[in-house]
Amino acid sequence: MANSSVNHSHRPDWYRRLFAWGIAHGMARYQRTVARYKKTLFADIRGDVVEIGPGAGANFAYLPSSIRWIGVEPNPFMHPYLRRQAEQLGVEIDIRTSTVEQMDVDDNSVDIVISTLVLCSVPDVAVALRDIHRVLRPGGRFLFMEHVAAPRGTLLRSAQQAIRPLWQWVGDGCCPDRELWVELEQAGFARVEYQRFEVPFPIIKPHIMGVATK
Predict the structure, then answer these.
(1) pLDDT category, 47, cuts 50, 70, 90?
(2) Who contacts 22 (Cβ-Cβ below 8 Å, separation ≥6)?
(3) Calpha distance 150→26 (Å, rounded)
(4) Which residues pair with 52 in a beta bridge?
(5) Which of 111, 132, 199, 206 is deepest in the core (most CB within 10 A)?
(6) What would the mean pLDDT of 131-160 be, rounded to a whole number?
(7) How far is the C-alpha of 163 from the C-alpha of 159, rounded, in Å?
(8) Alpha carbons 103 and 115: distance in angstroms, whole number
(9) What does DSSP assign to residue 101?
(10) Is residue 3 very low, low, confident or very high in pLDDT (cuts 50, 70, 90)?
């Protein structure tokens, strides 16, 4: 499950439009399930914030109005949903149509980068994490919540691998079996802290959330 299309501009417009509609209208149960985790993860957000793949703006409800928010969202069909949600919640936003791997954001310029259900679908996780590291100021934080691979050798891991081709097509590139904690630990951050939790959605049941500090 991907929160947003990340770098799949080769998809036809009808697909990207339909995917945006699905994210805006089909994620309510999931969002209710992870609300308490997001409240914890986003409890201390401040300063200049970049959110990668913000989708339809599900995270706006957790963000203080005092921040400066930049959204890196390459799917233009997500933008109307973002603007509508931001207007309803009184959040000022700056949407940039670039990719996670090549963000239209200056080096060492932001305090926080946010990612929820995005790294599952980027074509190259290492490149994306490198660009996240690039835009963060020294001491800046990368806050993430992602679904990940089940433990190796389990039936769920086998199911994730078996369904991956179809899942990627339906979920705009989403890979259900990525060991994202490994990528994070190898991305050059000074410190990576995360915890595991589970949600009642079979293929994406295992999750991690945490903070990587530059």
Answers:
(1) very high
(2) none
(3) 24
(4) 72
(5) 132
(6) 98
(7) 6
(8) 13
(9) T
(10) low
Q: Which of 121, 143, 118, 27 is nearest to 81 (CA)?
A: 27
Burial of 198 (0-12, 13-18, 19+ CB in 10 A): exposed
- 149 residue type, one letter: A
pLDDT in tens, 85-98: 999 988 899 999 99
Q: Return the closest-CA partner of residue 14 out of 55, 73, 57, 75.
A: 75
What's the one-letter identity of residue 76? P
Q: Token pair for residue 16?
A: 């990207």
Give me 36's structure tokens.
Answer: 């308490």
pTM of the model as a whole: 0.94
Distance between CA atoms of residues 53 and 74, nearest Å? 8
Specify the length of the chain in residues.
Answer: 214
